[in-house]
Every structure is written in C-alpha cells, then in structure tokens.
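Human: Here is a favour to ask of a fellow structure person. Comparing notes only helps if you start from a blank page. I am asking you to supply a protein in sequence and structure-token form. Write it directly below this note and I will take it from there.

Assistant:
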Amino acid sequence: MELIEGQTLRAEIGKNNGLPPRQFFDIFDQICDALEHAHKRGVIHRDIKPSNILLMKSDVRENFVKLVDFGIAKVVASQDLGEQELTQTGDIVGSPLYMSPEQCVGDELDARTDIYSLGCVMYEAIAGSPPFMAPNAVKTIFKHVNVKPDPVSVTNPKIAIPPQLEQIIFKTLEKKPQDRFATMEDLKVALRQCRQMMAM
C-alpha cells in the first residue's frame, strides 16, 4: 500500500473550527474529481467522512487530496460492469454522522449517496461540526432520515457563509436522492461557479 504522509481533513477542520474559503474550494474540488472518477467506473465509496480524506503537501499544491478507505465500497450494476453487485439492498454500512437517509434505512444506493455524505463533510468543513449529531448512532440516523439540518449560522454564529454556497450544501443534503445533484460532476461545476462568483 502507498505510504501517505499528511493529515486528515478532520484534523485540518479542527485547527480553526472550519476551513477558510480558498482552502475549502481547493479541497472539495479535488474530492469531487476523485468521486467522479470512481462513480464513472460504477464504484460507490459509501464511507465518505473527514478521516477518510487525507491532505498531503506536494510540489504542485499545498493541499493535495487523497480519498482513502474504499473498504466498504460497492460496485453497482452498469452496462460496463454487468451484474457485479457486491452488496445487496438491506445492508447498513457506513459512519452514522455522514450516512445518507437511504443508507440509514438500508435502501438501494447509487452515486447520490456519496453526494449526501460529501455534503455532510462540506457542512462540517464550514460550520466546524456535522449537520446532525445525537447522543447515539440510532438517534443520529433518525435525524438523517427525518430532520432538516440547521442553517450554518445557527450551528456556528461566528461563520458568515455566502448564500450561494449554503444553497449548494443544502442541496446535497436533501432527503430524497432525486432532489440532490444528479452527479458528482454537477456538484463540482456548481462549486466552481460559486467560487468564481465569490472572487468577483
């Protein structure tokens, strides 16, 4: 296995209770690229969380992102992959703080479950804490399925987030998969457009 020298996104978020905008966009653009690459090959990660995102320093950029731990990834049926279904509907796997509603109840999954989980990580990267937290896993799962996340300003009143960015994050956190971005590429484009608008 590759030796990766760096730190987790969780540690980076913890330094300042969130990420500054430039670093946020740089990191999540790379994560979108990695997940888009996986999804186009029929692979769903299913365990997107800050501790599975590693940040390295390279000659190219300060925060070079590595997405790791595909240990519970699922290969979904597609025209290219045939019927290589590794995990049946009904399995519940993942990290409760970042699991999509459909993942929480054991429904069939597609790439949009990773979009939801990434939305949870983006929310945490801005607000300093995940969108849903409860005393135990069952109560956290209940919130993913039934409760809307608080605005970032409620979770962390010290943060001033541009409305466009909050709209993007909240679209990733929609309960119904069809209400989220359809693909990781769509999310990446929306983030890039938001970054350009903020730079004006």
Summary: The helical segments are 9-16, 21-40, 101-104, 112-127, 137-146, 152-155, 163-172, 184-199. DSSP finds eight helices and five strands in the chain. The beta strands are 7-8, 43-44, 53-56, 64-67, 74-75. The longest helix spans residues 21-40.
